[in-house]
Amino acid sequence: MFFHQNRRRQNNYGIYLLAYQLFNSRYIPPITLAVIIFQMAIFLGYFPFLAQHRAEAMCLLPSRILYRCEWLRMLASTIMHVDDMHLYFNMISLLWKGRRLEPWLGSNRFLLLLAVFAVATSSTMVGLSYLADEVFSFNGGGYMNQCAIGFSGVLFALKVLHTTYFPYSDHNLFGWLPIPSQLACWAELFFLQMLTPNVSFIGHLSGIIVGLAYTMGPLKTVVDILESIISLLLGSIPKSFSQTRNRTRSNNRNWFTNLSFEGRNSAAYERPSYGWENEQRNFNEYTGGMSEEEQLWRATQRSLYEDS
User: Fold this and answer.
1) What domains can be seen in the chain, in order of their start residue?
2) Is 204 tagged catalytic?
3) In this model, does residue 125 exceed pLDDT 90?
């Protein structure tokens, strides 16, 4: 979202709403929860150098980044927010996406992805702003001097991953309009720009581009290399995607079931329960810990690869 001085709010109603949602969510993966709490702490002023009064100095301003080398803006801008409701909507979106993606990817890789996506979306936004102003001169220029702030770019990248890994999930625009999974990100980008013109179109578009670069391009290879390097530096052996995902799904589910908050509306956020999970016999050795939806997706992908 573009930063404007007069958009600052004087109350923290969004913080109370977000805290209520967290306390009434039965299962929240560890990295998702930690990132949400971290950004809440930033907004509440627990990190003075990222306090709200410094939002204008930390927002993503492409001209300052390119011509004055203010590189800190590329990271600081993604974890700061304009006001409490901006923070609330972004963190609820992260909560929903993290509940699916973190168990699927593994907590360590999910944390690495958030860091890579934060840098990649900011870099892409700077590049697109430069192209729009200096090369194509869209709308008379001005993109290089637009100050953007917020986690939305990373969220759009995560949405691309979600629609790729869970193509059979329901995708409803505004909670009621069904949208094909392949078009969900683009539809949301279009309608957000129509309803709230002050949002950063280039920032959201950058998130979609980064998500596609991960699912269809070279960014996944970069993340794989970084994950291997970090694993070697920490003295552990890099694990395959499936091993990490299956192990983390089982561990996170058992751990957070014991530490979860109970609430009336928790069913809306908890992972679907399948009948065979309640039986004494362990079926994970046959299913790999995957749900029926995930087994169907895996079988479809394997069939496509075998046919090719």
Assistant:
1) 13-232 (1.20.1540.10)
2) yes
3) yes
Rg of the chain over Cα atoms, rounded to whole angstroms, equals 20
Q: Which of 152, 162, 171, 206 is catalytic?
A: 152
Closest CA to 155 of 26, 39, 265: 39
Structure tokens at 268: 């809306």
Distances (CA, A) of 293 to 13, 72, 297: 37, 41, 6
Tell me how far apart the alpha carbons of residues 152 and 248 are, in angstroms, rounded to a whole number.
Answer: 26
Residue of 77, 162, 204, 206 marked active site: 204
Neighbours of 61 (CB within 10 A): 23
Task: Tokens for 207, please give them.
Answer: 């998130």
Q: Any bridge partners for residue 192, and if so which? A: none
pLDDT in tens, 28-49: 999 999 999 999 999 998 998 8
4 has catalytic annotation: no
User: What is the per-residue DSSP string for 224-257?
Assistant: HHHHHHHHHHTT-PPPPHHHHHHHHHHHHHHHHH
Give me the phi and psi of 240, to 5 degrees please.
Answer: -70, 165
Query: Which tens digits make up the pLDDT trace of 158-173?
Result: 999 998 888 876 666 6
Q: Is 60 helix (H, G, I), strand (E, B) or coil?
A: strand
